[in-house]
Amino acid sequence: MAKLMVSITHAKDNTDKATVGFVVANAGGVSGVETVVFLSTEAVFLAQEGYADDIHEEGFKPLRDLIASFTEHGGQIWVCSPCFKRRGLDEGRLTANTTIVGGARAVEFLSQGASCMSY
Predict the structure, then answer these.
(1) Is 119:22 a contact under the CB 8 Å cutoff?
(2) Which 3 state secondary structure label does DSSP give 118?
């Protein structure tokens, strides 16, 4: 099975990139590609329930709907552990199918032949 990692580094600081990242992740997931979203730097905020509720780029579904669709179809969201901790976020408020991981987990996935797209 093909593998895809979508690396997202933006949230409300660039809602266009955050949104397009999840559009691509959804496309990968519905295409039968094992797809993981890796959130780092500012994007770790997207892993908090309710954070994306007011993000809606014109021409796209609201970001909260894109995230929900991705996870409802089995998509996994990985959150950079040091980035998450640095921002003092709450593990009890993680979105569905979200796991806090270290960089080694991302490297392992990529070393198994996964392609990566970054936003």
Answers:
(1) no
(2) strand
